[in-house]
Amino acid sequence: MQPPALLVIDDDADVLKAAAVLLATGARVETAQAPEPVFERLADGEFDAVLLDMNFAPGERGGAAGLDWLARFSEADPTLAIVLMTTYGGVSLAVEALKRGAMDFVLKPWRNEALAAAMTAAVAATRARRADDLNLDDIERRTIEQALQRHKGNVSQAAAALGLTRPALYRRMARHGL
Amino acid sequence: MASRALVLPAAGRFAFAVWLHALLIAALVFLSALAALHGLYANAVLAAGATLLAVLSLARRAGVADRALALFIDQSAVESFDDWGPSPAGFGATEEAMRRASSALRTTRAERSARIDYLQALLDSVAAALLAVEADGVVIPTNRAAVRLMARQAARLAEIDAIGAEAAMRLLALRPGGREIVALADGRQMLATAVRFAAHGAPAERLIALQDVAVDLDVVELKAWQDLARVLAHEIMNSLTPIASLAESLRAGLAEPAQSADAIEVIARRSQGLMSFVERYRTATELPQPRPETFPLQRLVADVETLMSADLKARGVAFEATIEPEDLTALGDADLLDQAVINLVRNAAEACAGVDDARVELACRQEGDQVLIGISDNGPGLSEPARTQLFVPFFTTKVGGSGIGLSVARQIALAHHGQLTASDRAPHGAQFVLTLPAR
Q: Domain B126-212 adopts which CATH fold?
């Protein structure tokens, strides 16, 4: 399996360095000082987990920006697990973040072990969701569709290509409603 | 009394009596003269005696009328008409007029006393103690709260136990229109305000209002501390995040050699940052006591221009200063105020640097007995998180900002019994106004 790809977003460059050094063991880490530039790439499923700060401007403390971006990220890739981090550890903010679909909520300064564990769990969650998306039935159905397309609807040729008998292919097509 | 003997219609009794007396006297004089002419000297003497009696009677009647008039006037003066019975003088039309006048005065007096009762009730409902201090220092409580504060009779402010000599001195030193928090001898914190007023023709008195603000102050203080604690925690935790994590990673041997040097550099830099942060904290909390003296605003403007021109030029910000009138002076510590205004000008320059035609204006003018120093820019104005936290120490919206400048400027303004306020400016930009006493 490929090493997981992590994305860390925080406006403090030193925080990014610290996260990169910690998480680089066994993962590919990419960092960004703002969410906008990397947002476009999320839909491609390039990352396995995101560590997202909740405030991106000096003086901002409410965490509203983090919650907004959490919503946009989840919409762009519903399978992607997102861990939020903040210096303002209000219980209500943590509850709000989890309710809105954050995988976890980490307080700054973090304990290395705790952050590493949260990110490992996030990667596992993302991969599980993506695997669920592609269960065996889906794979079979997609394969049959592709074979039929390739052979322009000729069932005999498609069955031969798939290594099935014609009746066996018909049975499976009926099951998938094709 | 003569009036009882003469029973006549009320109207014109006095006039009729005078007329009758005059007739009688004239007749008696005529008789007396006639008798003397005819040699009837005994009769003449008799008639002369009767004339004398008639004159005396007239004089007595006039005396009664005089006393009745005097009584009416006296009563008008002291506004007591309650025992104004039927006049013994029998004045007729005059008496009617006097009766009407006294009734009108009685109504006016009743209305006025109702109005005074209402005003007194209003004064009593005010929670602040209102004390009138006469020119000679005699103090008079003007409402219930003041009476309660005084507890017992006292002639002077310092003699009021709850106030005490020290607080009394500060209260009496309060300038008209001034406001100050004063700690009383009984330990209460009072917001004291003073106004000067003069009743018609009387020498000017001072009215001192004392409002218990302990409760409000506690809330404000608590809020200030919470804000400060939050900002401090944020600053410290933000710096500690990379320090703690990188130190732990280095110890665990997670960092590659190239990263190690970088990690150590970050730890050193952020630790330094924390130290200088604490240094700044010390500067902000140890503001020297101002030494006020009257100084020309021209000096302040010249200082600011000298110290800021390079910085303004480097940021590409135009600067204009005006003083109206040109020889305007203010009372304050010129060095501290230089610092406050420089902070405000720098803040304004940072706010508008980069906008088209960036411009900072410093305008000094007089308003009543106050000097207003306005610093305005044409930047983006006050942002929402900034608006409520502008003056919270260490709060900043700028990368690398210390969060000290505005907070120190505000502290300097307050130490001068002045104010520092901020507002947005149309069409865009922000304006800070520092208010100082002119004298």
A: Beta-Lactamase (3.30.450)
Task: Give the Å distances, CA to CA, from B86 to A75, B78, B222.
Answer: 101, 19, 73
CATH number, position A156: 1.10.10
Inter-chain CB proximity A17 and B262 less than 8 Å: yes
Interface contact A112-B263, CB threshold 8 A:
no
**DSSP-derived pairing of the beta strands B370-377 and B359-367:** antiparallel
CA of B412, closest CA in chain A: separation in Å?
Answer: 23
Sign of CA dihedral B235, B238, B242, B245: positive
In chain B, DSSP finds a helix count (H) and a strand count (E) of 12, 12
- Neighbouring CB atoms inside 10 A of B357's CB total 9
Chain A partners within 8 Å of B248 (Cβ): 22, 111-112
Q: What interface predicted TM-score (ipTM) does this complex get?
A: 0.71
Q: Which residue of chain B comes nearest to A64, CA vs CA?
A: B385
Which residue range is the domain that position A147 belongs to? 136-175
Classify domain B293-437 at the CATH topology level. Heat Shock Protein 90 (3.30.565)
Window 359-418 of B: residues touching A by CB (8 A cutoff) are 383, 385-386, 389, 395-399, 401
Task: Establish how many alpha carbons lie within 13 A of residue B228's alpha carbon, considering only the half-sphere containing its beta carbon.
Answer: 13
Chain A residues within 8 angstroms (CB to CB) of chain B: 12, 14-15, 17-19, 21-22, 24-25, 57-62, 87-88, 108-112, 115
In this structure, the answer to whether residues A64 and A127 fall within a common structural domain is yes
A129 with A140, same domain?
Answer: no
Q: Using an 8 Å CB-CB cutoff, list chain B residues near A57.
A: 397
Contact A162, A169 (CB under 8 A): yes
Task: Give the minimum alpha-carbon distance from A142 to chain B in angstroms, rounded to a whole number.
Answer: 44
Q: Do A23 and A109 lie in a common domain?
A: yes
Q: Are residues A80 and A39 in the same domain?
A: yes
| Residues A124 and A145 both lie in one domain | no
pLDDT in tens, A101-127: 899 989 889 999 999 999 999 999 999
What CATH number has the domain bearing residue A44? 3.40.50.2300
pLDDT tens readout for residues B238-250: 889 999 999 999 9
